[in-house]
Inverse folding.
């Protein structure tokens, strides 16, 4: 499918898919959405420890890069796994302006390394932050009791409903450690019901700019 680079409301880039009228990130602000959903309501729950993160939809690398920057502030050691079936090409990566928008020019090489890194191989990006990129479909994920935190950033249920089913969320539930957390920008009733059905304790939280609510699920005892 055709992919176009667009500028979102906060000045940061994302990719638009005209056929679906869908974006990789919110048109109201890619960086604002990532910080609100995945950092404020996900990563910030953990402090001064080593944690493992699974990202469903590595995409532009924005969530991974922001996590790297925030981990340094929060004194976290991160083992990050990003799953993506359709990776960006080099020309698309070059047009992502996250390094500039985040005032992170000293780490521009880190953002590039995240995209240039080989698939299926774990590499330490910098001390305390390792990355593994897995090129696979989400229904092929079979991890068990491995992750503290899941960033569920798949395309919306309106265009890819098969990514938001009980079957997928059961895989997410199994992949989490006890007391592990899943965060997603979605607040659809069908998504909440699917999460509840597989055992998650689900909270509705205030959403990022442009969305009233979002969901957070916990794998409780």
């Amino acid at each position: 499918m055709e992919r176009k680079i667009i500028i979102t409301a906060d000045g940061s880039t994302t990719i638009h898919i005209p056929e679906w009228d869908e974006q990789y990130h919110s048109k109201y602000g890619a960086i604002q959405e990532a910080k609100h959903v995945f950092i404020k309501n996900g990563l910030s729950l953990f402090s001064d420890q080593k944690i493992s993160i699974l990202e469903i939809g590595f995409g532009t690398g924005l969530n991974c890069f922001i996590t790297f920057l925030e981990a340094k502030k929060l004194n976290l050691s991160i083992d990050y796994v990003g799953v993506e079936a359709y990776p960006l090409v080099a020309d698309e990566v070059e047009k992502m302006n996250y390094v500039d928008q985040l005032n992170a020019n000293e780490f521009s090489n880190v953002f590039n390394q995240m995209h240039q890194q080989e698939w299926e191989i774990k590499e330490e990006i910098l001390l305390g932050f390792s990355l593994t990129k897995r090129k696979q479909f989400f229904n092929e994920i079979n991890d068990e009791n491995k992750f503290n935190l899941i960033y569920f950033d798949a395309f919306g249920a309106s265009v890819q409903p098969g990514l938001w089913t009980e079957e997928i969320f059961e895989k997410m539930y199994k992949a989490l450690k006890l007391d592990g957390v899943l965060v997603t920008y979605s607040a659809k009733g069908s998504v909440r019901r699917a999460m509840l059905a597989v055992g998650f304790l689900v909270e509705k939280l205030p959403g990022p700019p442009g969305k009233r609510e979002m969901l957070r699920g916990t794998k409780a005892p």
Q: What stands out?
A: The mean pLDDT is 96. Residues 3 and 10 are 20 Å apart (CA to CA). The two ends are 42 Å apart (CA to CA). The chain has seven helices and eleven strands.
